[in-house]
C-alpha cells in the first residue's frame, strides 16, 4: 500500500499567538460540521497563546457571504483601532482656542491581553459546501475561493481558507473529525487555527522588514 502523504507538515517553529488578534467568520449551512470545525480552530488558537478576548467570531448564512463578511470584519478592526486612538487622546482639542483639557486615559488601562485597539492579524473563513444535483456547488466553490484569495492579496491580511468543498456528507464529516466510521477522520479546523497563528506572526515580522 502506498504511503499516505497528504496533510500539512507541522512547522518546526512553535509560533506564539499571544500578541495576535484573530477573527473567525463562519457560515451556518451544515451546522454540525461547522461547529466541529470552528471548535477545532479555536482550540488551536488558544493552544498557541491567542487570548479568548482576542478571538472574534461572526456568522453569516452561507459560504457565498463569507468574502463580503470577511472584508467588512477586517475593515471594522481598523475602525475600532481608529476609535480607540481617538479615545486615548482623552478629548484633546488640537487647534482649539480653549485651554480646557479633559484628563486623558492611561494607555494600557484596558484589560490585560485585550487587543481591541488594533486591526486583525488574520481571519479564518469557514464554510461547508457539499455537492448536490445541480451546478450550484461549482459556482459557489469557484466564486468564494477567488474572492477570499483576492481579499487576502488586496488587504495584506492572511485569510485562511476554511471552506470544505466535498462531494459527499461523509467526506465533510471526516474532514471535521466526526466521521461515522471507526476512523473519525481529522478536524481540519485545527490546521486552520495553526495556520492563522503562523501566518499572522509571519506577516507581522515581514511587515517590519524581518526574516
TrEMBL record:
<dbReference type="InterPro" id="IPR034964">
    <property type="entry name" value="LS"/>
</dbReference>
<dbReference type="GO" id="GO:0009349">
    <property type="term" value="C:riboflavin synthase complex"/>
</dbReference>
<dbReference type="GO" id="GO:0000906">
    <property type="term" value="F:6,7-dimethyl-8-ribityllumazine synthase activity"/>
</dbReference>
<keyword id="KW-0686">Riboflavin biosynthesis</keyword>
<comment type="pathway">
    <text>Cofactor biosynthesis; riboflavin biosynthesis; riboflavin from 2-hydroxy-3-oxobutyl phosphate and 5-amino-6-(D-ribitylamino)uracil: step 1/2.</text>
</comment>
<dbReference type="InterPro" id="IPR036467">
    <property type="entry name" value="LS/RS_sf"/>
</dbReference>
<keyword id="KW-0808">Transferase</keyword>
<dbReference type="GO" id="GO:0009231">
    <property type="term" value="P:riboflavin biosynthetic process"/>
</dbReference>
<dbReference type="Pfam" id="PF00885">
    <property type="entry name" value="DMRL_synthase"/>
</dbReference>
<comment type="function">
    <text>Catalyzes the formation of 6,7-dimethyl-8-ribityllumazine by condensation of 5-amino-6-(D-ribitylamino)uracil with 3,4-dihydroxy-2-butanone 4-phosphate. This is the penultimate step in the biosynthesis of riboflavin.</text>
</comment>
<protein>
    <recommendedName>
        <fullName>6,7-dimethyl-8-ribityllumazine synthase</fullName>
        <ecNumber>2.5.1.78</ecNumber>
    </recommendedName>
</protein>
<comment type="similarity">
    <text>Belongs to the DMRL synthase family.</text>
</comment>
<dbReference type="GO" id="GO:0005758">
    <property type="term" value="C:mitochondrial intermembrane space"/>
</dbReference>
<dbReference type="InterPro" id="IPR002180">
    <property type="entry name" value="LS/RS"/>
</dbReference>
Amino acid at each position: 500500500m502506498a504511503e499516505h502523504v497528504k496533510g500539512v507538515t507541522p512547522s518546526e517553529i512553535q509560533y506564539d499567538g499571544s500578541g495576535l488578534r484573530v477573527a473567525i467568520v463562519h457560515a451556518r449551512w451544515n451546522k454540525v460540521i461547522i461547529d466541529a470545525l470552528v471548535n477545532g480552530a479555536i482550540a488551536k488558537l488558544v493552544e498557541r497563546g491567542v487570548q479568548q478576548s482576542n478571538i472574534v467570531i461572526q456568522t453569516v448564512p452561507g459560504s457565498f457571504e463569507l468574502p463580503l463578511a470577511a472584508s467588512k470584519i477586517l475593515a471594522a478592526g481598523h475602525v475600532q483601532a481608529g476609535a480607540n486612538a481617538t479615545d486615548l487622546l482623552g478629548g484633546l482639542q488640537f487647534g482649539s482656542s480653549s485651554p480646557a483639557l479633559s484628563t486623558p486615559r492611561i494607555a494600557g488601562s484596558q484589560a490585560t491581553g485585550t487587543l481591541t485597539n488594533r486591526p486583525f492579524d488574520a481571519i479564518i473563513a469557514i464554510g461547508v459546501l457539499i455537492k448536490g444535483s445541480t451546478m450550484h456547488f461549482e459556482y459557489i466553490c469557484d466564486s468564494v475561493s477567488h474572492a477570499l484569495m483576492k481579499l487576502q492579496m488586496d488587504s495584506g491580511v492572511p485569510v485562511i481558507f476554511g471552506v470544505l468543498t466535498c462531494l459527499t456528507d461523509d467526506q465533510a464529516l471526516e474532514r471535521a473529525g466526526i466521521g461515522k466510521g471507526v476512523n473519525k477522520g481529522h478536524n481540519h479546523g485545527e490546521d486552520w487555527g495553526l495556520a492563522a497563528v503562523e501566518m499572522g506572526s509571519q506577516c507581522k515580522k515581514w511587515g517590519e522588514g524581518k526574516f
